[in-house]
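Structure tokens please, single chain.
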Amino acid sequence: MALPRIKIAKDKAELIQKLIDHKSGTGPFQTYADVVAFAASLGFKYQKRVPLQEISNSEPAPISLEVFISRGYDWAIKLIAISETQQLQTLANCDRDIEAERIQIFEEYANGGLEKLKDELRGAVDYTERLLLILSAERFQEELIEEEFDLSRFL
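Here you go.
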């Protein structure tokens, strides 16, 4: 029994290839699965779930779920799906329909995350540096405490 494949939108294929950068070996990610898992996490964080329109059949082609499992991303797929559906049966491994739903949720969040990355990386020369800046900004982001505007400070 072949495992399902994680599909990638055709309009995001070039971005994924740039994030890998096989030629010079300086890309921030090692595999397509790494990029997709990061993008899905980013898409989920920003609640950006975008359905896939046209699927990329060339480079990168749909990626076997086995690759994600071998890299430990199967838990990310399950966590995103259960957070989205709020149903425990989403974790069931024996039901093909549930697995297909989990994969679809993951693919759509990855697509949304790739859209966000595309916007954030626009005009960047070094994607690694820009990604580090994005991650640092998130890490050190201070929570803004909303307080009433106090005019007495100006008296």
